[in-house]
Design goal:
Largest sheet: 7 strands, mixed
Number of helices: 17
Number of strands: 14
Structural class: alpha/beta
Radius of gyration: 29 Å
Distance between the termini: 89 Å
Helix content: 25-40%
Strand content: 5-15%
């Protein structure tokens, strides 16, 4: 107590008084510094614990290799009942995959990568898909939207995100595409004037043609066409980076083929495929012939093909003169045969019928009759045809039984056997990234930011608004059944002759079937049939 109140006493001599004053000041100053330091430390800890202080210097957790397909999820926590919404924010520690939610990368980062897609999905699917690809290095997105994706509450959120360009399917857009040179060429002609999947295939190709022009205007180096149920999987790079992967591609390569893996769901109640599904069936291109055909029957499980849907992958094209689409799966060039390579590790992860509701949603988009003859006009792949008939003719209980039998993997013994054989594989990294983005509040932030802008613009007439592409925003663009076949503006089409570099558009194709087994593989199967 004497020390604390020393300054209240009259000093007996000057030197003693000065010494005591200095001591009191020093002790109080040190005490104040200690209190401030402890308070700041506690405050920082609270912010970090609540996920409110992302670490901009840490992109990956030290000691975890996100490139390994079998690596375990990183710092994930189970979702509570109060966090069921995929766009919700968790109170657990965040996964520092990003600098900030905008991901507004500078133009100095090379190569610049763009993705184009045609979608009618909602924010619950598009935002995780988009920000996952931003994390692995994609800078630009060209979104051709209709249906739910074109509604004001969805499209305004998408347009608020840096690097995103939204193009609405309006009459003006269709008039522009009706003048495309594609209608006068032969490579896509086999898909003209047919409903459902064929119409979608033509629409995607026309959208890809426009996206090439947009990519060149944006100074993009590579362009990829993906659906919003597909994720790029840049395995084989130490950083799990699509940018790093494409930066290492030799300069004389024009196109990179990514074989696709197909999701193998283990439950019939999946709600968020990107953060719930971790098992995938490998592509034929990533297996030996002996391994593929030797396990074909068990891997197919009575379905028409090894994959439920397509097996010929997707591709990335280097943006250059005379580039053109070659259907939704490939790119081509008008004046040369592109040099292409196929990657041995990287892949496209295709989340195929991961939700039971996918059966009815696909059915509702097509107006064909549920007969074996009519579905051949509407769908290119056998499983899609069967699924459409099932969804159109059975009760919900019967559909669920069919879905469990043909889509859901419930046989644990078979799963372990095919994982051991290398047919099935576990891939956790996309799940970890999407879950980390959700827990860090990225999706909530972008929606909240766009919502503030929507409130500011409420006084504007929706008829006067125009999107970034120059086409008017039409709010009445909700899903319609595909029946009105896309047509060119002129009904008299003139086809140009094939040149040496012409190549027919590549549709979605099933993997090789048992008819593709050669004598060597047949001998292998006979020798190993007893095992």
């Amino acid at each position: 107590m004497a020390g604390l109140f020393a300054t209240l006493r009259r000093p007996t001599n000057i030197s003693s008084s000065n010494f005591q004053s200095s001591s009191v000041f020093a002790s109080r100053f040190l005490y104040l510094l200690t209190v401030i330091s402890v308070s700041l430390a506690v405050f920082a800890f609270v912010l970090q614990w609540r996920g409110g202080l992302p670490d901009p210097t840490t992109r990956w957790i030290p000691g975890d290799d996100p490139n390994e397909a079998g690596s375990k999820p990183v710092r994930l926590s189970s979702s509570s009942s109060g966090c069921a919404d995929i766009l919700g924010q968790s109170r657990t520690a965040s996964f520092p995959y990003f600098r900030d939610w905008k991901f507004n990368f500078g133009s100095d980062l090379r190569p610049k990568i763009s993705i184009t897609t045609s979608t009618s999905a909602g924010l619950e699917q598009i935002l995780p898909w988009m920000f996952y690809h931003k994390v692995i290095g994609v800078t630009n997105f060209f979104l051709f939207v209709e249906g739910k994706a074109a509604s004001p509450n969805v499209s305004k959120v998408l347009k608020s995100i840096p690097g995103v360009r939204v193009i609405y399917r309006t009459k003006e857009l269709e008039d522009v595409q009706a003048k495309s040179r594609i209608w006068n060429e032969t490579w896509l002609a086999g898909f003209f004037y047919q409903p459902c999947n064929h119409e979608l295939f033509v629409k995607q190709t026309l959208n890809m043609e426009m996206a090439i022009v947009m990519a060149r205007e944006a100074g993009v180096d590579w362009i990829i066409h993906l659906d919003t149920d597909e994720l790029m999987h840049p395995a084989g790079t130490s950083e799990y980076s699509l940018r790093r992967l494409l930066a290492d591609i030799p300069e004389d390569v024009d196109m990179v083929i990514f074989p696709n893996y197909e999701s193998s769901v283990e439950r019939d109640d999946v709600k968020e495929p990107f953060s719930e599904v971790s098992m995938f069936k490998k592509n034929y291109d990533h297996l030996t012939k002996e391994m593929y055909f030797g396990n074909y029957k068990e891997a197919t499980r009575g379905n028409p093909n090894y994959f439920l849907t397509y097996g010929n992958g997707k591709s990335a094209a280097r943006v250059q003169d005379h580039l053109r689409p070659n259907g939704a799966h490939r790119w081509h060039n008008y004046i040369k045969s592109p040099k292409e390579i196929k990657l041995e590790e990287a892949a496209v992860l295709h989340y195929t019928y991961p939700k039971f509701s996918d059966l009815t949603s696909r059915r509702d988009r097509c107006g064909c009759k549920p007969t074996k003859e009519d579905v051949k006009r509407c769908f290119m792949l056998e499983f899609d045809r069967a699924a459409f008939i099932i969804a159109s003719t059975l009760t919900e209980e019967e559909m669920l039984h069919w879905y469990r039998e043909h889509v859901v993997w419930t046989d644990k013994t078979l799963i372990q056997k095919l994982i051991k054989k290398g047919i099935l594989t576990r891939i956790y990294t996309p799940m970890a990234i999407v879950q980390g983005l959700k827990e860090s509040g990225v999706f909530v932030s972008v929606i909240a930011s766009a919502h503030r802008d929507i409130i500011k613009d409420e006084s504007l007439s929706s008829a006067g608004n125009r999107n970034a592409s120059g086409y008017p925003h039409i709010t009445d663009t909700f899903p319609r059944k595909m029946g009105r076949i896309l047509e060119p503006q002129s009904t008299a089409r003139k086809f140009v002759e094939f040149s040496k570099t012409d190549r027919q558009a590549i549709p979605p194709e099933s993997p090789p079937g048992m008819d593709g087994i050669d004598l060597t593989v047949t001998k292998y199967l006979l020798n190993n049939s007893s095992s």
